[in-house]
Amino acid sequence: MPAKTNDPAKKTWLPVPLHSDFPIQNIPFGVFLTREDVITIGTRIGDHAIDLGALHQLGYFEGIPLTDDIFLQDTLNDFISDGKKTWRLVRNRISEIFDKNNATLQHNEEHKKIVLFTMDEIEMQLPVLIGDYTDFYSSKEHATNVGKMFRDPENALLPNWLHIPVGYHGRSSTIVPSGTPIYRPIGQTFPKGAETPVFGPSKLVDFELEMAFITTDANVLGESIPVDEAEDYIFGMVLFNDWSARDIQKWEYVPLGPFLAKSFASSISPWIVTMDALEPFRVESPKQEPTPMPYLQQNGKKSFDIHLQVDIAPENDEPTTVSKSNFKYMYWTMAQQLAHHTINGCKINSGDMMGSGTISGPTSDSYGSMLELAWQGTKPLTLKNGQTRKFIEDGDTVTIKGHCEKNGIRIGFGEVSSKLLPPFKSKTK
Amino acid sequence: MPAKTNDPAKKTWLPVPLHSDFPIQNIPFGVFLTREDVITIGTRIGDHAIDLGALHQLGYFEGIPLTDDIFLQDTLNDFISDGKKTWRLVRNRISEIFDKNNATLQHNEEHKKIVLFTMDEIEMQLPVLIGDYTDFYSSKEHATNVGKMFRDPENALLPNWLHIPVGYHGRSSTIVPSGTPIYRPIGQTFPKGAETPVFGPSKLVDFELEMAFITTDANVLGESIPVDEAEDYIFGMVLFNDWSARDIQKWEYVPLGPFLAKSFASSISPWIVTMDALEPFRVESPKQEPTPMPYLQQNGKKSFDIHLQVDIAPENDEPTTVSKSNFKYMYWTMAQQLAHHTINGCKINSGDMMGSGTISGPTSDSYGSMLELAWQGTKPLTLKNGQTRKFIEDGDTVTIKGHCEKNGIRIGFGEVSSKLLPPFKSKTK
């Protein structure tokens, strides 16, 4: 079904800049504020945002079972609830409407005025209301690096890691879209050599290079999702920066896990790229040894070849690329994560988000956090402007980009880019 | 302001059974399905549920700034967003309407038919859409008991425990109201003596006696809530059973905390008792030594004297009370928990829920979990029917009750009661 829509030969009548992340083969979904201050659901081709609410009102989705207001909403949750069949029908229809050989909208200037926006006319919003957010810890390289630094270099991986896609519940209320500035968190830490914990701004603010997937309603309370069906419940993926305060984390996280070290903010890219758009970029995931339990076993290409990059730009200065990684390094797949998440009967809703965990590659220039890149501050990175970084400093903008590329087609995620500000002026005494 | 509404001398024209949790001084808020299959927001006096949506339509809340549909909703979130002043105006008005000396509704048979339901005519729902759920770990006795069992009896409390109200993010999607049956979760465990992890139903399903509070919108991203203001953002409290699978927890929880061991289900009592109703039952919380950091310091009576009880009833058999505890044992107060939760700028929304953590008292008959009551299975409890319990068995119903009592007035929470069923018949291979 997605084959035709993914056809590399397909061209659109909209302009698509060279190396754009958003050719007609992508068709991501997002939510934006228009120039008239209206919130709508939309897609993007090249540098044009397309108002799907308006397209639907104009009758372009005729024949597809959609409620009248499905795109006139401030989140994608209801559309995602409609399920995979409907996502695909809509994606295919959008592909037809903007096909170079389709004259209907192409030559209707009145409709085009209503439907099309340039990217600078709109403001991207959070695409979904995230009911529950879970973060996994599924990069073996990352878990190994952290284990080496904080536990035992000889037994870096904990005993459960190769058996379980380890994960934890995160905070939904502070997930913000790209462009939202982040405040340096304050809190308790226990610095080396101190006799009691100290209070103040975190000194070790870090990014985490992650991706995340968005689910649809998948089960009822008590029901598990088989690993072979899990992909059907994944709507799409975004780039994800899981901001972390390493010093707060170190003092608080035993025994119940990271809490305030993470919940001050997490940033996502605003366009959800569908699994159908990513289909041509499937790759095998790393060999799993020992063989996982049956409920986690799967065959075939269950990962995706997604090039990832992290840039740091000091205030008013040019960016330096500090890491190049790839989603394909993930040890546990999304299907395995979802099967594991529901093996206990945990209910999954439309708009739930699940992070991959930090995506570190095998080499030191492919690590997914400053903690690893600068190895606990022992190997500071040098930026283009000559400054060094052990962690993120106030005024720095961290930008994660990601894209797939094959047969001349590039399907990208755009970026998640956020500036770290000094601590919020708090009312706290 | 609440003084008049809390007056012990106040009587209502509705019948209130002896020892009822719901005298006219309580006025809790909940959501229920009526005999006409309509969902509405309501309150309860004695064994009558009162339809606030209907009362509002009939003009009984005239003069209070409320939108027309504020009670015609399937969650309390919007009403809670209206803030403390409005909660209080509504509570006071309800108190007036049902005052023995007020004839208006009392003698309007037509209105009474529309507004009043007996409890057996309605079905209680989840009172709020819980955006984010956080669980704390704030009973010193519980943390000490767990530390003794799983870590070092000599150093049972972890170093951060006396400095931080330790907490973690939980799963919102599986919080269910009293009466919803729970399925025994399946998953991975690593039993003592095994060489590899095993798969199957949890063998150590436990309850956790907790209470939880529900918040209103409190801050913007980045902003902290001062401990002295924190109580203003708490709408009310419920009873909370934080179902736990001890064997799953043991294998999965290092290093990121409890995950599937908790997320299979958590149960709450359906009526939210407001902080105004609890006002007369304030007590001092335990002395905190060492003195907490300034952002956690507070004076006065910041805890509440709430009697708690846990009963276990085997299938078709009478209940046995297995624990009697009290909310006042909590080391960290709700205000401290909320101040800590936001010290990093974490945004708190209307309908967020925060659990106390297991509430264990100082004696072995006041512990808040089977893990502690039967001390890791070494001291099985004997039920009235002669059976013993180390943990919860299929068919058992666990019921938590809670109430305050002073000057002849009893303000109660009703109960959270849930039956444990065998594992869900899963599609998983």
From TrEMBL, chains A, B:
Domain (Fumarylacetoacetase-like C-terminal) ranges: 134-411
Binding annotation for Ca(2+): D135, E208, E210, D242
Binding-site residues, Mg(2+): D242, K262, S266
Residues the record lists as binding substrate: Y137, R151, Q249, Y253, T358
Keywords recorded for this protein, A-Z: Calcium, Hydrolase, Magnesium, Metal-binding, Phenylalanine catabolism, Tyrosine catabolism
Domain named Fumarylacetoacetase N-terminal: residues: 25-127
Cofactors, names only: Mg(2+); Ca(2+)
Active site, per annotation: H142
Pathway of action: Amino-acid degradation; L-phenylalanine degradation; acetoacetate and fumarate from L-phenylalanine: step 6/6
Biological process according to GO: homogentisate catabolic process; L-phenylalanine catabolic process; L-tyrosine catabolic process
SUPFAM superfamilies on file: FAH, Fumarylacetoacetate hydrolase, FAH, N-terminal domain
Any one GO MF annotation of this record: metal ion binding
Keyword field contains Calcium: yes
Domain of life: Bacteria
E.C. number: 3.7.1.2
Family stated for the protein in its record: Belongs to the FAH family.
The protein's name in its UniProt record: fumarylacetoacetase
Naturally occurring in which organism (per UniProt): Costertonia aggregata
